[in-house]
Amino acid sequence: MSRLWRRPALLIAISSVLMLVAGIAVGWVAGTSAPGNDSVEAGFARDMQTHHQQAVDMAMYEWQNGSDTAMQAVAYDIATSQSAEMGMYRSWLRDWDVDLSSGEPMAWAGDEHAHDSESNGGLMPGMATDEQMAEFKTLTGTDADVMFADLMIDHHIGGVDMAKAVLEVSDNDLVVDAARRTISVQQAEIENLEGHRDNILSAIEE
Fold first, then answer.
1. Among 1.20.1530.20, 3.30.70.120, 1.20.1260.10, 2.10.109.10, what is the CATH number of 36-101+123-205?
2. Are the CB atoms for 87 and 27 separated by under 8 Å?
3. Can you spell out the DSSP letters for 94-151?
4. Which residues contact residue 9 at a Cβ distance below 8 angstroms, ignoring those fewer than 6 apart?
5. What is the pTM of this model?
6. What is the dihedral of CA 19, 80, 172, 94, to 10 degrees?
7. Which residues pair with 66 in a beta bridge?
8. What is the pLDDT of residues 116-163, one digit of tens each?
9. Which distant-in-sequence residues (6+ apart) come within 8 Å of 127 by Cβ?
């Protein structure tokens, strides 16, 4: 991996630009009937911002502290792409003139999905606990690579579940397109993470 892309300040700068560009790109296509403050769409956008932020935090730590170049490359892609999507969600909320921060996680998804947060200690599906994040951030090298994969696989499974849940209850074009893209991209990344993790574990056993 090039030394240029190992500079945290550079990644942060690139992510900020991507967030800005994403916000500008989607701002002008917002629908004529904007979702309200208590809408499914607004709740989903708020929750996905929070969900993505943890993914970016994990990915940036792996990128700087892992040792497997393939895993670090996946982490870099996750950090930059999800930073851009956070900017997109924030732009929606501003265009809709609704609150930017979340209330109760997954409240927008209805009672049938209430267990998604309850079974995870009140967190959104797939989110790592504070204890897991604290443990992860004590690790470096191969240990960080493996735990990053484990945490991010669960995180992506949760993100896919959230995207599927919003598809059940929203027909907003922006939200539907983003949810479908999330499912496609994150399912592919799950397979990629599993493959890299299995390769690392196999090498350890040899």
1. 1.20.1260.10
2. no
3. HHHT--SS-SSTTGGG-GGGHHHHHTTTTSPTTPPPHHHHHHHTT--HHHHHHHHHHH
4. none
5. 0.83
6. -20
7. 141
8. 555 567 899 999 999 999 999 999 999 999 999 999 999 999 999 999
9. 51, 54, 120, 155, 158
